[in-house]
Specification:
Two copies of one chain form a homodimer.
Chain A (H helix, E strand, L loop, with lengths): L8 H8 L7 E7 L5 E8 L9 E7 L8 H13 L7 E2 L8 E3 L2 E7 L11 H18 L12 H11 L1 H7 L5 H12 L6 E4 L8 E4 L2 E5 L6 E4 H12 L10 H14 L4 H28 L12 H13 L6
Antiparallel strand pairs in A: 1-2, 2-3, 3-6, 4-6, 5-6, 7-10, 8-9
Helix pairs in contact in A: 3-7, 3-8, 4-6, 4-9, 6-9, 7-9, 9-10
Chain lengths: 324, 324
């Protein structure tokens, strides 16, 4: 959550002029996104769609420019198929992103809706259904991208952090090294795949009332098991503060919603407890790495890896019960 | 520039329901304001004005709740007189602010426009004219508020920081203690007053093309000399990076614009060099204090007091030349 870069009004105006969207009226840096800077842009409107509001995203780090066509084409693909996903606004030359001061920027459709911290069962049900619709639609997308944050990566990252550095964060954290290795060894290789979001936290979902109005921030999207995406979403949505207080009703609604569109296969359902442990470890490992890697004085909120250790332990204990 | 507080979608929705503005559609934390949190709010619209966008401000610190009626009534007063100032949206009971989790919040009109880093002479001219119009209009405002950041405060704050702590920031900074005392001693007491903005930095002005579309962030507004406000604005707008590279053309346009609406009196014009030194010292002192007061690890950008030391030295050297 940050605006890393300052853009002058002149720079913004010149940029907007490269698109058929009218004149710049307003630009506010918004506190969203962890690997990019974002502005809410208002223009006088133009073009066929006549939109007057857009999100301008500047890709700051962690995002390989070579991946941008995959991410931005995916938005367009899903949006064109009726998914609540913001399309990319292409510039007058047809390009989906441009370079500004050496950094890639894209103009993205603005979607209404607010992120909810604690969903209702109705919202969780709709989220599951929309996720399944997205998985089915994305199977027709021609692009592919390897998941470079899978269980093998989690295991390697934690091992490289080392038990001492992990123990300095929390005495219960070094245990993640062994658990990650075990999860990676048992990881199923043959579950049905699609393009998955893989980071569908509440921040990345816009709700209007009880319905999903937007899925955003596809910058971890990759080709991987659909059931893994459901497990990530489960881990991200069904717990209270600190990864405690599992909300069975929310998890249940999420899965029922998902299966109302795309019933899980037997092996997918059987794999959910392990997939959820892998999902928890994905965030344990990246947060532990960032914690060690981030100077205490940096202007970034360090996220506590223990929030996902708590989820990991829960999924280990609960097994199938968590998904019943 | 920060969003200090997280508000859940439910809390935001409940809050918006207290106003006749329709249903909540979107809420984005925006990276504006140094002593408050701000959200750009979108609603379905309702009421006579039919506005659909608003700024929600939560007052975090530095702002005395007892001052809020002054600030918010001032916005309404100036807006009603045709100044480009956002009015306050009153709730269904007529209140201009409410309490949320123990903190005061206000819903403010959204104004278009973008903040420019480096104004054109045309923009500076219009800014001067709007500032003068605001000064004249605000003379009819019944509220008053003492300027608690005047030259005596600057002098006291710098003395209390102490030469050693200032020298630790920059060897050239302790000299500000003596200069501030001298400026405070020579400060004119009888210049014509109004309610002044007193913090009219580029961040607090929204431009559309070459015209001022909004003056915002009146949370330092107070009753003081109008020429001092012009001097603050001059110090805030007419310099390049680090307080260097005085732009005479911008300063000239600002003053010519101001005088196109409200000609300065002889004593005001004669006082400008001193007033500008006082303006520079106001920011030297608060920035030095914040620098010393802010832990290095805090998630706040510390502003370098030396940027305004450079301006102070410039105004001392240039004298009347800076305003010719």
């Amino acid at each position: 959550m940050a605006v890393y870069t300052q853009l002058s009004a002149g720079t913004l105006g010149d940029l907007v002029a490269q698109y058929d969207v009218g004149q710049l009226v307003s630009a506010k840096g918004i506190a969203e996104g962890v690997s990019n800077s974002n502005w809410l842009i208002e223009t006088t409107g133009a073009g066929a769609a006549g939109d007057t509001r857009f999100i301008l995203t500047m890709y700051e780090r962690r995002i390989d420019r070579g991946d941008l066509p995959f991410f931005l084409d995916l938005l367009d693909f899903l949006s064109a198929r009726g998914l609540p996903v913001p399309r990319t606004i292409h510039d007058r030359t047809g390009a989906s992103f441009r370079l500004l001061d050496g950094k890639a920027v894209a103009l993205i459709e603005f979607l209404p809706g607010v992120s909810v911290d604690s969903p209702t069962a109705e919202q969780a049900h709709d989220l599951g259904a929309v996720l399944a619709r997205m998985h089915l639609a994305a199977q027709g997308f021609s692009g592919t991208r390897r998941n470079d944050l899978g269980p093998a990566t989690s295991s390697r990252v934690l091992a490289e952090c080392g038990a001492d550095a992990l123990a300095a964060i929390d005495p219960a954290l070094p245990r993640a090294i062994r658990l990650a290795r075990e999860v990676a060894e048992r990881w199923p290789a043959d579950l049905p795949q699609s393009v998955i979001h893989s980071d569908l936290f509440p921040d990345n979902v816009l709700m209007l009332g009880s319905a999903v109005a937007g899925l955003i921030d596809f910058y971890f999207a990759c080709t991987d098991a659909m059931a893994y995406d459901l497990a990530v979403t489960h881990a991200a949505w069904c717990f209270g503060e600190g990864g405690k207080d599992f909300r069975h009703d929310i998890g249940h609604a999420l899965i029922v919603g998902y299966e109302s569109v795309r019933p899980l296969l037997g092996p997918e359902r059987a794999a959910l407890p392990l997939l959820a442990q892998g999902a928890a470890l994905r965030f344990v490992s990246s947060r532990a790495f960032d914690w060690i890697d981030t100077p205490a004085g940096a202007m970034v909120t360090r996220k506590d890896p223990m929030d996902f250790m708590a989820r990991l332990e829960f999924y280990r204990e609960a097994g199938d019960r968590a998904f019943a």
